[in-house]
Design brief:
Arc Repressor Mutant, subunit A, about 40% helix, disordered N terminus
Length: about 160
């Protein structure tokens, strides 16, 4: 089984800003300059980021504004929050926008988050297994998320 860490590329997405604007409009929200700045940082970086990392890349954003915008972008389905063991949540663009299904390695010591992808045959096995478990409980699966929690290379030394 080959698991690859990778940076997500957005070339396959027609126009991320058009899609974000549509999602926000359907949630009754506007696509403000501050929200666009947050989306730009997440799209450019292509990995889960903490609020301090986002602010370091966009120093013109006020912390309170950035946090509020992240919450509103999350509510509209634009951003996904990843909870880790450190004091900061990580944020990334939703898979519907990136077009890339992936999973996360989360360090329980430092909170680092690394994206990884698995081969298509393993994804199919995960889907089948998740559906079997869900059927047992009368649940219908829309999607799955796989977060592996452990210790990163730096923390395990």
């Amino acid at each position: 089984m080959k698991i690859e860490a990778r940076k997500i590329q957005f070339g396959a997405v027609k126009n991320v800003h058009d899609e974000v604007s549509t999602l926000l409009r359907s949630a009754g929200q506007r696509y403000t300059g501050s929200r666009r700045a947050v989306v730009d940082v997440l799209a450019d970086e292509g990995r889960p980021m903490t609020l301090p990392e986002i602010l370091a890349r966009q120093p013109d954003l006020a912390q309170s504004s950035a946090y509020r915008n992240l919450a509103e972008l999350e509510q509209a389905g634009v951003v996904r929050r990843i909870i880790t063991s450190d004091e900061h949540s990580h944020f990334e663009l939703a898979e519907d926008l990136t077009g890339h299904h992936h999973h996360h390695l989360i360090c329980r010591d430092c909170g680092a988050v690394t994206d990884f992808a698995v081969p298509a045959d393993l994804e199919k096995q995960i889907d089948r297994s998740a559906s079997a478990v869900a059927r047992k409980y009368g649940f219908v699966v829309d999607a799955h998320r796989l977060d592996l929690v452990g210790r990163c290379m730096d923390c395990s030394r």
